[in-house]
Design a protein that fits this description.
The complex is a heterodimer of chains A (about 400) and B (about 160). Chain A is mainly α and about 400 residues long. Helix content of chain A is about 50%, strand content about 10%. Chain A is built from 18 helices and eight strands. The N and C termini of chain B lie far apart (about 60 Å). The chains are: A mainly alpha (about 400), B alpha/beta (about 160).
Chain lengths: ~400, ~160
């Protein structure tokens, strides 16, 4: 038999439990992958086109939807681009609250990714534990914002709600819980010989390739590139906070897992600092507060809930362009907005999510590996099809 | 390196290509070049340290032109990473074609394919000028163009 005759085309998905909402087209020789092409677009929802017919404020919930589990990054990046066009900046307390939610979100997004990765390589315990331990973080995020995942918490000029009473204590309890719990994770999953055998040395991404392919997030940092937007172009309250950029040199699937664990620990550090150092003051830009009727302003003071000024319904944005980037859980989110200054919607909105930038890794990393390694590599990328398709 | 220094450096590097360099403080630099010169401009930017592309955006100005923008930055030089360079070019409206930058920046592989798929820009030399997000059977106006109208329904439908 010649090589050509031996090679089979294997379709994984889109209805396969471990493929996500996408199809992987693999060419295999025996059980060695010769070539693998991701076939994406099954959950495309044309966010960029819809943004051109929706008003500026209506786009906030729209951009969150694709990246379920990592919504704050999109919310924040979009609002940052919008604020650049409007020429306003949120007050310091709002910046701290944005950081707080972003870090809570990062923790539960990483737990989500680790859990899915666990079940992909056959550890249903890791899956159940990660999803269970995600719950307390979703609960505290809900207490802060009123929603479990689609927060729409960050608005131009500030945030929607102030800290609830006694929030610090409940957050501290949740953080302590996860810290203690981490030891169990290492005992039963991360240091498990089976996990190690499935992940160590699998799907190695070299530093040069990571840079060349423009990958982002923990996948980039696991290959030894210390690029983190929170340090490179600090936004929100990050300039005033002390944290490390977690990197690893190995670039394999295990390194990507360990970067995520390291980031969970750094995020807990950040949350504690935020709650300790958060300044007093308004959570909404005073220009907008002034536009709210006096009675509602009173209500805002009493409850800490922001009421939108009437101008938000038909928000007019000066003509211009703005680009913003935010380090989300899965990586860097880039928003590019063009406003023509006349219409109530953006002229063009470009939204590039981390998963869309990482999709190139499927074909790059799987070559030469066994078919059984495909899910081990897939899961380690924390790839989320709806986020890539947008 | 500060904003003015970098801007001056790019101006001197790309000056002979007829590039127009402008910028928005504190960290965005716009470079406009003709599409014939864009590959060479990208090569020079890459040798300066701009090693990857974050996004490729195509913008439609109906009956006038298309604009394609490459948002490039650096991973290997963390000082440059603070800056974002927008490499732009204009394409005629009835024939939106330009050479691919895949040879220079492999990170544009999916981005250029997406702009072909949704905006109908043809990147010459790109090996995958085929559908990415839309169904393979899709025919008609590329949906991101302004002439493609989104049908909206009233709340009582």
């Amino acid at each position: 038999m010649t090589v050509e005759e031996r090679i089979l085309e294997l379709l994984i998905g889109p209805q396969h439990p471990a493929s996500g909402h996408m199809r992987l087209v693999a060419k295999i020789d025996g059980d060695i992958v010769v070539e693998l092409r991701p076939n994406i677009g099954y959950v495309h929802r044309s966010v960029e086109k819809l943004a051109e017919v929706k008003k500026y404020l209506h786009i906030i919930p729209l951009v969150e939807r694709p990246s379920l589990a990592d919504t704050t990054a999109n919310n924040l990046a979009y609002v940052m681009a919008l604020e650049k066009l409007l020429g306003i900046e949120a007050p310091p307390r709002a910046q701290y609250l944005r950081t707080l939610l972003a870090e809570i979100n990062r923790i539960h997004s990483h737990l989500y990714g680790l859990g899915i990765h666990g079940v992909m390589i056959g550890s249903s315990t890791a899956y159940m534990w990660c999803f269970g331990d995600r719950e307390p973080f979703i609960e505290i995020a809900q207490e802060l914002t009123g929603a479990r995942l689609t927060y729409s918490y960050i608005i131009p000029g500030g945030v929607r709600r102030d800290l609830p009473q006694g929030f610090e204590d409940r957050v501290e309890k949740v953080l302590r819980y996860l810290e203690n719990r981490m030891k169990d994770y290492f005992d039963i999953y991360f240091n498990n010989p089976v996990t190690r055998a499935r992940l160590e040395g699998v799907g190695v991404l070299t530093k040069e390739d990571a840079i060349k392919l423009g990958v982002t997030g923990p996948n980039l940092r696991a290959s030894g590139v210390p690029y983190d937007v929170r340090k490179i172009e600090p936004y929100a309250a990050y300039p005033e906070l002390d944290f490390e950029v977690v990197t690893r040199e190995e670039g394999d699937a295990l390194a990507r897992v360990f970067v995520r664990i390291g980031e969970i620990q750094e995020s807990m550090k950040i949350i504690r600092q935020v709650l300790k150092n958060i300044p007093e003051g308004p959570i909404f830009h005073e220009k907008y507060v002034k536009m709210v009727p006096p009675k509602l302003r009173e209500y805002m003071k009493e409850t800490g809930e922001v009421k939108f000024p009437g101008t938000f319904a038909n928000l007019r944005v000066p003509a211009g362009e703005a680009i913003s980037r935010v380090e989300g859980g899965r990586g860097e989110v880039v928003f590019y907005l063009i406003s023509d200054g006349k219409s109530l919607s953006p002229y063009r909105m470009r939204m590039v999510t981390p998963s869309f930038r990482n999709v190139i890794l499927f074909e790059h990393l799987t070559k030469g590996h066994r078919v059984a390694d495909i899910p081990a590599i897939y899961g380690s990328l924390d790839y989320f099809p709806p986020e890539a398709d947008r | 390196m500060n904003f003015e220094e970098l801007k001056a450096k790019i101006e001197s590097e790309l000056g002979d290509l007829g590039a127009e360099v402008s910028g928005r403080e504190p960290n965005v630099i716009d470079i406009k070049v003709d599409k014939e010169k864009i590959v060479e401009a990208a090569k020079r930017l890459k040798s300066m340290g701009f090693d990857h592309v974050k996004a490729v955006t195509a913008v439609d100005f109906p009956k006038e032109r298309f604009e394609v923008i490459y948002h490039a930055s650096s991973y290997s030089d963390l000082e440059l990473a603070y800056f974002i360079v927008n490499l732009r070019t204009s394409l005629p409206y009835d024939d939106p074609k330009m050479p691919t930058l895949l040879e220079v920046w492999p990170s544009v592989l999916y981005q250029e394919q997406e702009e072909y798929d949704l905006m109908g820009i043809l990147f010459e030399g790109h090996p995958r000028m085929e559908r990415l997000l839309l169904p393979e059977t899709y025919e008609g106006i590329p949906p991101l163009r302004k002439e493609f109208k989104v049908k909206t329904e009233g709340i009582n439908v």
